[in-house]
Amino acid sequence: MADDDTPLPLDPERIRAEFPSFRQSELRDFAHFENAGGSYTCAPVLNRMRHYYWNTKVQPGHPFGPSQDAARAMDESYRRLALAMNLSPEWIQFGPSTSANTYTLAHAFEGWLKPGDAIIVTNQDHEANTGVWRKLVSRGVDVREWTMDRDSGHLDLAALDKLINAKVRLIAMPHASNIVGEINPVEDVTRRAQIFREIEVEIAALPGRQREAFLMRYWEEMDVAETAAAMGCSEGSVKTHCSRAVHALSRALKAKGITL
Ligand SMILES: Cc1ncc(COP(=O)(O)O)c(C=O)c1O
Fold first, then answer.
1. Domain boundary residue among 25, 60, 91?
2. Which CATH number belongs to the domain containing residue 210 in this structure?
3. Residue 121 carries which DSSP code?
4. Atom of ligand 1 nearest to the CA of 37
5. What pLDDT was estimated at residue 260?
6. pLDDT at 10
7. Do 29 and 79 belong together in one domain?
8. Ligand 1 atom nearest 38 alpha carbon
9. Does ligand 1 come within 6 angstroms of the Cβ of 180?
10. Nearest atom in ligand 1 to 177's CA
């Protein structure tokens, strides 16, 4: 077993013993279901924080002892977090708080969105993870809410299927929700989003007139007469373009193992 591995299965007694707070008598009969900022901190983290505040709270990476130690600790944190999340370290980004991080992310993302693009948010999220995305409505973004089942608290995939289409550029959802205490099937959601990405790729590969007719009819939801007027052709031609486009798309997607 590598140094960084935690022995499995997790032993609740051993884990609990790592949290000094739970040794306090006031917390003895207390069940605390939380994550993110509102949770108690375990001893290894407290020890590292103490070491940081006592010894290495200086600008990192300068040529003196504590500063070099601080830089090493930072590098180590990227490596360890990447390992815990099964990512490469370039994917790890630290920021001041979840609210500030999502604010920055939404601000960056906003430049890629145009009016009429859609995003999906959920009501199973903490405000810090959802508020910034919802505010994009003021930029003309169509914000769609994937709501929890009232009785179970689940985010059902069938409900997502009714919201997702090729106009959706982003799905902002919790992986682990501390509102209902469950882990969501992010892989299934990602797969659904990727199918729409594939559809976009195939639409881009259609001959120009077919693509135009298809997008107006099925994306812009224009009727046959409106599409014919916009394209300057007969309604019959619109129907032919659309039917060829649908056949070409379903053939191309089937070849990629996608059936709709
Ligand atoms: C799930 C979740 N996300 C985000 C936050 C808020 O994070 P921050 O204070 O870092 O903005 C909380 C606060 O407890 C939370 O429970």
1. 91
2. 1.10.10.10
3. E
4. 14
5. 65
6. 84
7. yes
8. 14
9. no
10. 1
Q: Please, are residues 192 and 200 in contact by the beta-carbon 8 Å criterion?
A: no
> Does the CB atom of residue 178 touch ligand 1 within 6 A?
yes
Is the domain of 186 the same as that of 211?
Answer: no
At 1 the pLDDT is 46
Residue ID of nearest Cα to ligand 1 atom 13: 37
Say which residues have a Cβ less than 8 Å from residue 186's Cβ, sequence separation at least 6.
173, 175
Q: Is 179 in the pocket of ligand 1 (CB under 6 A)?
A: no
The residue ranges of the chain whose pLDDT is under 70 are: 1-5, 35-36, 260
User: Which residues constitute the domain of residue 16?
Assistant: 12-91
Q: Is residue 68 part of a domain?
A: yes
Helix axes 98-110, 127-134, angle to 10 degrees: 20
Pick the residue whose CA is nearest to atom 4 on ligand 1.
128
| Residue 83 and residue 34 in one domain | yes
Percentages helix, strand, coil for the chain (3-state, rounded to 5) are 55, 5, 35
Q: Which residues, at least 6 apart from 44, have a Cβ–Cβ distance to it below 8 Å?
A: 18
Question: Considering its fold, how many domains does the chain have in total?
Answer: 3
